[in-house]
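B., you asked whether I could sanity-check this one before it goes into the benchmark set. Here's the sequence:
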Amino acid sequence: MHGGDSPIALKQRIRWMLAAGCFAALVLTPLDLERIVRPFVDRSQIQAEAGVRMDGPWWPDYPRFLNAVRQRTQPGDVILLDFPQRRWMGGYAFAYYRAAYVLTGREVLPLIDEHDQIVRDNIRAARWVALFTAQRQGQLLRR
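And here's what the prediction gave me:
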């Protein structure tokens, strides 16, 4: 202890030093205000705009096509998705996952895998082929 300091005075001094240290850390550390505010901001509009940018030139025809496929098929149907982009990371994955979401209740099978190879077992297993062409037209073919 410092001279005649009581335990209470020592605790107050420790608290003051900790508070001063925290304040100094806040002042000396560069703060990114955007990161602090981010959890409190409504990002739905930003996410919607980003989604439209990611959808590519085939938007809004693709969701209409998927809704037509949904209307013509039944829950439990197995549907193979044929999409003009034949690279998984080049757009096929997005189209596939969008189809799987919209066609909930049906089994949507990808024509290609994540290595851009055709999955022949999926071709054999499908009852329907959902074909969306590069001209942004769609066909649903029964196998």
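One thing to flag: The two ends are 88 Å apart (CA to CA). Otherwise nothing jumped out at me.
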